[in-house]
Amino acid sequence: MKTLKTLINKMMSLRGSRAAVAISEIASPAVRNDKNNAIKRWRLGLVVVMAMLLVGCNPPKVTVTSPTEGQVVADVMVDVLGTVTDAQGQQDIVAVIVNETTAVINGQQFSVENLPLLNEGENTIQVQAKDKSNNVTTVTVTVIRQLDAPTISITSPTDGTWVGQGQVTVTGNVTDATSVTVNGQSASINGNTFSATINVIAGQNTITAVASNGGQTAQASIQLFYDNTPPTVFVVSDDGDLTHSSDTLHFAWTTSTDGESGIDHYEYAIGTSEGGTSVRDFTTIANPEAGELTATGLALFHNLTYYVTVRAVNGASLMTDRYSDGIQTNLNIPTLLSFIPDDLARFEIGEDLMLEAEGQDADGDALQYQFKIDDDIVSAYSSDSTASLELDPSYFGRRTLSVTVRDSFGSESQPTAHEVFIFRKPIEG
Predict the structure, then answer these.
(1) Would you give the distance in Å from CA 410 to the centre of its chain?
(2) Residue 286: which of 299, 295, 274, 277 has the closest Cα?
(3) How far is CA 133 from CA 53, 58, 93, 116, 189, in A?
(4) 381 vs 406: CA distance, rounded Å
(5) Are 314 and 255 within one domain?
(6) pLDDT value at position 20?
(7) In three state form, how does the secondary structure of 276-289 look?
(8) Residue range of the domain that includes 136
(9) Do 314 and 226 meet the contact criterion of CB atoms below 8 Å apart?
């Protein structure tokens, strides 16, 4: 029995033609004499068959350590390295073939130097390991041959740009690259474009984008400036409390400054609230140095208060808004219904000339009247709708009498004028 176990173990450790030698040893006279009955010889034969079936069932184990799956190679050749083992021992490894090239085997290590990569783009490396029992293990690795150097450019923001936020999205164009970083941060690649959002610090920043394809790199850089302070406060003013215009507003502003990115431009808007744009949305002021502007083409309505907003914008697009204190529209101007004396009336020197007017206002406001002879005021604005003038010799000749009426908001009618003639009194007798 001890001899039988020894022979079985020997069979399990052998392969191929060596197994046949073992069988012949089992069939030798010594064995036959030791096993002289048929049953024992049959059992011994069965053990031999089982041993032969077990011999050579375990194929070699192959691992490729370099290059790795999907690796980009910037060359027409690559060194292939790996390990190979066999369950029955390294002495049973017959060969390792890499793309029809026989590898050098050193212990459990195999290698092929300068394996050709025939195609630009994907190349399949096939590794086959064969043992003495003709067991074959095949593994494959795909590598990418990339001979063209990558190219990269930054399209946004542009070089020298001022920004007003601490995070900036950097975009650009890239070719022949498998990865892109922007200031060390990974960027997303979509076709031939890349994008990354990075943090910047106040003042000057250098933005560097680096493209890589595994073996070659390219980079592009720009200078970026971060301004985190808006323009200084300034003052906006309109033309007082009241306007009679339905389509224009005049306003003025003082100068704003910015010590970092400077003032880029001014804008204005008009609405019925501070910062409102219901009448006119923000519009760039063409000549900000003037410090004033008359906005035309507006649609203003009676008895509403309108506010002008002026916006100072710096080079980083940060804004400071200031507002006027509001100006009210009074579009219902008082009208004059009558004025005495009549046009072309005649008077004599020494008479008391009586002036009388009647006006009305659509809003029912209290009215005031002002009377003149030529450019001289006979009666200043008051609620009295009458006035008198003693005609002395200085008034001799043709004269112009006029009256103007205004409401409590100061809205004035146009003067109504009558021509009169003043004669010397005839000499009696």
Answers:
(1) 52
(2) 295
(3) 11, 9, 9, 30, 50
(4) 8
(5) yes
(6) 45
(7) CCCCEEEEECCCHH
(8) 61-145
(9) no
Query: What does the alpha-carbon distance between residue 217 and residue 147 come to, in Å, rounded to a whole number?
Result: 12
Contact 116, 76 (CB under 8 A): yes
Question: Average pLDDT per run of 10 along the chain, which is 429 residues long?
Answer: 48 45 50 53 52 62 94 87 86 90 93 92 93 92 87 97 96 94 97 97 97 88 97 96 94 97 97 97 96 97 96 97 96 94 95 96 93 96 96 95 92 94 81
How many structural domains compose the chain? 5
Distance of CA 178 to the CA centre of its chain: 24
SS3 for 215?
coil
Which residue has 């027409």 as its token pair? Answer: 76
Q: Are residues 413 and 353 in the same domain?
A: yes
Residue type, 225: F
Which tokens in the block code for residue 156? 């946004």
The confidence score (pLDDT) of residue 429 equals: 56
Spatial distance between the Cα atoms of 6 and 129, rounded to a whole number of angstroms: 30
Joined together, the tokens standing for residue 128 give 């086959």
Res 15: pLDDT: 42
d(CA 206, CA 183): 8
CB 418 within 8 A of CB 400: yes
Contact 96, 103 (CB under 8 A): yes
Residue 81 sits in a domain whose CATH number is 2.60.40.10
Our CA angle for 326, 328, 332, nearest 5°, is 170
| CA atoms of 19 and 387, how far apart (whole Å) | 146
Q: Are residues 100 and 169 both part of a single domain?
A: no
Whether 133 and 160 share a structural domain: no
Place of tokens 């900000």: 288
Q: What CA–CA distance (Å, rounded) separates 153 from 161? A: 16
Phi, psi of 31 (to 5 degrees): -70, -45
At a CB cut-off of 8 Å and minimum separation 6, what does 19 contact? 11, 51, 52, 55
